[in-house]
Amino acid sequence: MLNLRVVRLVVIVSVMTMMSTCFAQQSPPVWDAFQRALGKNTGLGAYEIDSSYELPGDDGRQTGKYTTRVSRWYAQGKPDRTLMKGGERAYPMAHLDLSIAEHIANRPEELFEEPSSIQSLDDQVIDNQVFSVCEMQSRFVNGTKPVKARLWVKSESGAIYKVEGRMLEVGLPGVKTADFLVQYALDSQGRSLPASFELRYTISILFHTGEVSFKQNFADWRSRSMP
Description:
This is Outer membrane lipoprotein-sorting protein. Residues 1-24 form the signal peptide. It is a single chain. The protein has a 10-stranded antiparallel beta sheet with strand order 3-2-1-10-9-8-7-6-5-4, covered by helices on one side. By secondary structure, it is of the alpha+beta class. 18% of the residues lie in helices and 47% in strands.
């Protein structure tokens, strides 16, 4: 028979290990506040996205602008976005934005999957306001792209300030990583809604290398309505 003291020691060690694992898995308050703020956006959608870009070209940098607007929402929660007049020449380059902004506009209540790792960082003061900050590794919910990002949430109110990070895989030929920034703003009801999305990455094809950048602004947040 095992010595009773040995059995007790094994039990104590096992319990302490389980408790340690439990504590390690607990998410920091800033992540919980971030998720709560996003949850308040459930059912909303940005009916308009204004996009502008800069791309490398044979004759130097080329720029373009276009606007898309929701014409209807489908039962699956996805909208039909129509290109507004004036953006016909620029719109063919829209696929280079990786469709992240469109997902944010369609589903502002979600952004990342549950983090695979997360840690709190020191608070930061911006414009005399204190923000809680955390760094995490996760994936965008609209695909399998892994990301490393930092979140800024206002300590006092729980409002989201911004999310800044890097996609560690992009899935686009000639592109290794991409940097992104999501800025948030409070609406009249105190909800943290995405205000803009910025994307920047370097693309190398054959003997050409250049930087691609997009800035997309969200407007006309309303309830997602089905036909």
